[in-house]
Amino acid sequence: MKKVNINADKCKGCGLCIDVCPKNILQFSNRFNESGYNYVECIDDESCIVCKSCAIVCPDLVFTLNKPAKQGAGNG
């Protein structure tokens, strides 16, 4: 399961999330969304620490973050 999901169609490319990411794994895409904005993408999902800084600063609520399940959880 991906840790960082970005709704590219809602992103307006403000870059606030890029500035606050402690792992520097967010960058502007080379592509544009339906509205013509250069949206943000995650370049290294595995390095994400799910700190939620990107989601907190995003004015357009484009981020959905998932914490991975702990190894061995539910194995009786």
TrEMBL record:
Alphabetical list of Pfam families matching this protein: Fer4_7
Domain 4Fe-4S ferredoxin-type: 2-31, 38-68
GO molecular function: iron-sulfur cluster binding; metal ion binding
SUPFAM superfamilies for this protein: 4Fe-4S ferredoxins
UniProt feature coiled coil, ranges: none
Gene3D superfamilies according to UniProt: 3.30.70.20
Keywords tagged on the record: Iron, Iron-sulfur, Metal-binding
Domain of life: Bacteria
PANTHER family: POLYFERREDOXIN PROTEIN FWDF, PTHR43193
Stated name of the protein: 4Fe-4S dicluster domain-containing protein
Organism of this sequence: Flexistipes sinusarabici
Lineage start: Bacteria, Pseudomonadati, Deferribacterota, Deferribacteres, Deferribacterales
